[in-house]
Amino acid sequence: MASTLKVSGIDHLVFHVKDLARARKFYVDFLGMEVDHERSWQCFLKCGNQGLALFEVSDEVRGGSELNHLALTLQSGDLERTKKTLEDAGIEVHGRKGDPSCIYFQDPDGHQLQLLTRE
Predict the structure, then answer these.
(1) Looking at residue 61, what is its pLDDT?
(2) Dihedral sign, CA of 30, 33, 37, 42?
(3) Exposure string (b/e) for 74-90, b if CB count within 10 Å is 16 or more?
(4) Rounded to an integer, what distance in angstroms lies between the CA atom of residue 117 and that of residue 101?
(5) Lowest-confidence segment of 5-14, 34-43, 101-110 by average pLDDT
(6) Phi, psi of 81, rounded to the nearest 5 degrees
(7) Is residue 113 pLDDT above 70, yes or no?
(8) 13-56: per-residue pLDDT in tens?
(9) Domains in the chain with CATH codes
(10) CB contact at 8 A, 36 and 44
């Protein structure tokens, strides 16, 4: 059965977070995303043409387990300097065997993030 629907892109992803203010600060102040709109329990961020929504949840819901990882493209800079910036902020980073063009780390709620550069 052929579909008559054709999506044109991803509007946003949702991360569950335990502390919305902490998560907002991490994504806005540290990673440079912009706030699109927000309420007391949610914050919608823009990253280029894509969106990330942060939803504050109760302690019963475990943050960081809804998906494998979110890959983010660096606008500029090199990975070694970026890795040092993350490590200087107390963030543990690791790479992927055989792929020197990306690094992985976790946000404060345990979501795995990937930073990569496009040659």
Answers:
(1) 61
(2) negative
(3) eeeeebeebbeebeeee
(4) 6
(5) 5-14
(6) -65, -40
(7) yes
(8) 889 899 999 999 999 999 999 999 999 999 999 998 899 999 99
(9) 12-116 (3.10.180.10)
(10) yes
Residue 111 to residue 4: CA distance in whole angstroms: 34
Beta bridge partners of 45: 35, 52
Task: Report the amino acid identity of residue 69.
Answer: H
Total Cβ atoms within 10 A of residue 27 = 23
Cα–Cα distance, 29 to 117 (Å, whole number): 20
- At residue 91 the predicted structure's pLDDT band, cuts being 50, 70 and 90, is very high
Q: At a CB cut-off of 8 Å and minimum separation 6, what does 81 contact?
A: none
What lies within 8 Å, CB to CB, of 50 at 6+ separation is 9, 10, 12
